[in-house]
Amino acid sequence: MAGSIVHFEINTKDAARAKSFYTSLFGWKYKDSEIPGIEYYVIDGVEPGGAINPMQSDQKSPVVYFGTDDIDATLRKVKESGGKAGEKLPIPTQGYFAACADPDGNAFSLFQSDPSVTMEMETGAREARA
Asked: 5-129 in CATH: which number?
């Protein structure tokens, strides 16, 4: 359903420390995302899905992902409504995501499920950004 929370990420600069902390706190277990070149640990068995994400930025709060049936249309709506929207990026075998912020600067992401997304789409997207 559009607007439902479908995923969350806990950002960290020390993945081993974060995994140890949340395992101690909640008993979480993890599996590697197996996305080549990406360190990202999926939390096994939680709803909605979640992950430990070694930070690529200085963001210190969790990121919530909202589901959408049409990420391109939703990204346009974010901009039209006064928010900020990043570019849509592929996640092989999962779909697409995009980082956004509301008019107050609160970070969130969008996610559109599409299991047909391939690694070649990811490689092409990386080359296009370079």
From this structure: 3.10.180.10
